[in-house]
Design brief:
Oligomer: single chain
Number of strands: 2
Number of domains: 1
Strand order of the largest sheet: 1-2
Shape: globular
Order of helices and strands: EEHHHHHHHHHHHHHHH
Helix content: 55-70%
Structural class: mainly alpha
Mean pLDDT: 91
Strand content: under 5%
Length: 409
Amino acid sequence: MAKTQENGLPFNYLSGLFNAISVFFLVWLLWYVFMNPNTVLKLYTPMYGFALVVTFVASILIISTVADFYPFQTRESVQSRVARGIYLTVSAIALTVFVFYAFFWGFIGKFGVAYFSPQSIIAGGGVGAEFFVARENACTAIVYYLTAFIWMTLFWKTGFGSWPWKADHRGVAAWSRFFTIFFFATIFFSILFHPHICYLFYPAQTKAGVAPWWDEFAGTGSAFFSLGLALCTLFWLIAFDLLWENKPFAQIAGRTGGAFWKGILVFIASSILGIVLMYILTRIMNQVWGEPFVGGQYTDGPDFRYIHAGEIGGFFILAAFILKSYFNNFPNIGGIWLRGAIRTVLAVAGGIGFYAFYYSNLATLVLAKVPGFGQPGDTPLVWTFMFVSVIMIQMDFFEGWPLTKQPRK
């Protein structure tokens, strides 16, 4: 038994370790059933499985963060954490199916933007109008859009919180927050991802989207540049929220008179640190693999270097969630600057550990993944986000059960 939890009860680090190991094997079981290319459902194509996992993460965030559990009962009015966790999980699965198949494939892709639906891509004809390729392209577009949505959701949570709807009814706040995040996510998607998707097809949809504006300075027209940047920035948003306890931004908001300036500062700080992180990671890759060049295959391609930086950021994110959830945000000593810095170092070290595992022979055997670093059929973010989604369900939907205990009333 050691340092107390947020609920005032002591935390058992041995139980936390056992819980983390149990979740690891649960994720392996889910991977075996849903993603393993040699077993049951074989959804890992990889973009089809990737899009479904990202949609599931987005659905969890819509319920827990965007809607703040509206219209479900509040935590205080629910007797059983297990029952609450089950129906919230079922709700997230149902929302995933609706968003993916009904909203993107059946509505937006059918009546609005064709590249969100494989059926619409096939109906349009041309190069790539074959079901597997069309589905991969449609799923790529969904991944990009929902990445922007997740980015804006976590930014709003860390930066603005419940502002400016603190005094409003739960329903008003939930819907207002949803449409605000949806609005900004659409803008970021249109600028950072849409141009690349328009150039996935031949001939390029030049009247629907401009040429990727980052091509000249990034060395690639691929939106892997934007995706890598978004994921590196997401790590810092999550680090601010989980590891740094939303400080020092909370104190700054108190001194400046409101959450608005806090949100602006969080956006600027996370964006700058995200750029710095991606720059450092790509520089390290350049030292290991040499300078990338246009047309380079696998590890030599600039597009791979950017997405790989984002994948490494994903490992850091997973480690941050594990440190917060299963090790009580260790350490809990000293001022926030000291413990926040130590936690960030531990998250980076843990992320490097996950990186080493994922690219080891053991992961090749356990996950049936493609060996090597720069293979086109390998997307480690699928495994990472699946792991994170299970942690989020346990912590947010089941309120930490069975790891965390509730105080007796």
